[in-house]
Amino acid sequence: MNTAIQARVDDYINKQSEVDLLRFITCGSVDDGKSTLIGRMLYEAQLIFQDQITALKSDSEKMGTQGDEIDFALLVDGLAAEREQGITIDVAYRFFNTERRKFIVADTPGHEQYTRNMVTGASTADVAVILIDATQGVLTQTRRHSFITSLLGIEHVVIAVNKMDLNDFNRPVFEQIVDEYLDFAENLNFQTITPIPLSALKGDNVIARSNNTSWYAGPTLLGYLETVEVSHSQVDYPFRFPVQWVNRPNADFRGYSGTVVAGMIEKDQQVRILPSGEIAKVEDIVLYKSSLDQAVTDQAVTISLDRDVDVSRGDVLVAADEPCEVSDQFEVSVVWMDQEQGFVGRSYWFLMGPTRVNATITDIKFRYNINTFEKLSTHAMSMNEIGELTLSLDKAIPFESYVSCKGLGAFVLVDRYSSATVGAGMINFSLRRAQNVHRQALVVDKEARVKLNNYPGKCLWFTGLSGSGKSTIANAVEQVLHKRGIRTYILDGDNVRQGLNKDLGFTDADRVENIRRIAEVAHLMVDAGLVVLTAFISPFRSERDMARALFDDDEFIEIYVDVPLETAEQRDPKGLYKKARRGDLPNFTGIDSDYEAPEKAELDIHTAEMTVDQCIKIILDYLEMPDL
User: Is residue 257 annotated as a catalytic residue, yes or no?
Assistant: First the structure.
């Protein structure tokens, strides 16, 4: 290559390496022109190749929505379903750069049903471009996306009033929309709001200033994006480093690999390992085969320490003199992303970076009305709703509030069966009760009670449809155990609802709470050394597994009392099925509320084919009961 050309190439590469990166999203209601805007920006800035332009013109003729003109939205709407419907469904990312800045833009969907996709795109953005159709004004989805944008901590927004060409670039229309939006946004946490009148289709004020808006003195869209100053405060934050992998390539090296989510670290600096609290000194910072003097925010490295300490995946290395908090109970903001509702008492996997622990919803404080910001009471979280919840984890974790450090404050809730992401959340703060409540050590413990009773405590969890025979079998088993000198107690569904759970109904949310309370009581009884028998429909697999998780190995025995629905209806000892069939008993399991059969129960009892004595023998054989 010619030396002069090589020099120019090297100079260009060096300059580009010094250009900073801006991540931004486009969002708004359906058909506000988000994809068209990005396509027009790429086209006007000459950032697409000639063959792409040729393909775009061809696609515009086949499936475009702009007549004989180029449909720029097709540059971004890559899914076949998007092109057919003329809407954005998934988040589309595009990478481009100018002389002044590099960009990653996320084109997010406008439909309410794809709010979770919009959250995904907004979670890493520095700026939000919120489009408003000049012919429609501020809509519900405009408010929803603005609220989510604020909730996720985006500080700078552009109000792109699009399709100004359809009302002849009327200034009063623009100003009226801006005034309405600014009035609405007083409740949001934006640092700057920049309104821009434009036409994505015609290119007005996208790249170049438009002659049609001589009354407008603000920046063009690209001009704003090239010059807006966004804070990168995480670089100045105390050092935070979640451990993703314990790196041991050989017996002579032990390092901890991960990405610096905040601050910086240098050799010989002291770090604290959380949650254990141990302190060590950084011996080396490794990047592939190189040894670094320091590592900064967003840099992926391996850190070795000057001594062997207990560090595992999910632990966090922090600045020794500025550690973060550790807790197992939080108040959080959550965007619910699943069709299956979330209830108090339901458990999920809690994933935050490399950390995975079990989390239980202990309270749903409220959900937001996006239009009015009113806080509404609710017993369940439904898809696309945003609310404030409290979570309890099964172990304490290092954390930061989301507004302070996203890397240690953002999390997702994942269904343990389907692995579907059911919620995206942000930690607000730890609950004070988590700091004030500590387990009390008892002199008379479970082991002492086992010796006294001469038999370990157990939980026999009978589950099945109403009329399957749960209570009958549980009563019969208890009588035999009682005769053999085993201390027992039955928790029966109807009896418990006379007192402990008399405040609960039969909605899905109430059923979840019903089982949560029973599981906690059963756990205490087993700790007391009793054999406790629970006879509940307990229709949801998730709650039965939550109950199982409270007990030690071999203490929880799930007994599925399995009968066909037809048999249960024929028995109908309380006449409940008849009432349910008439519509007098809503939310009845097996009729208009699902029963999720166990997948791996310890015992299956088929009462339609077996006598009571046969059922008892199967259970006692499994328990290996002594003949006392």
Answer: no
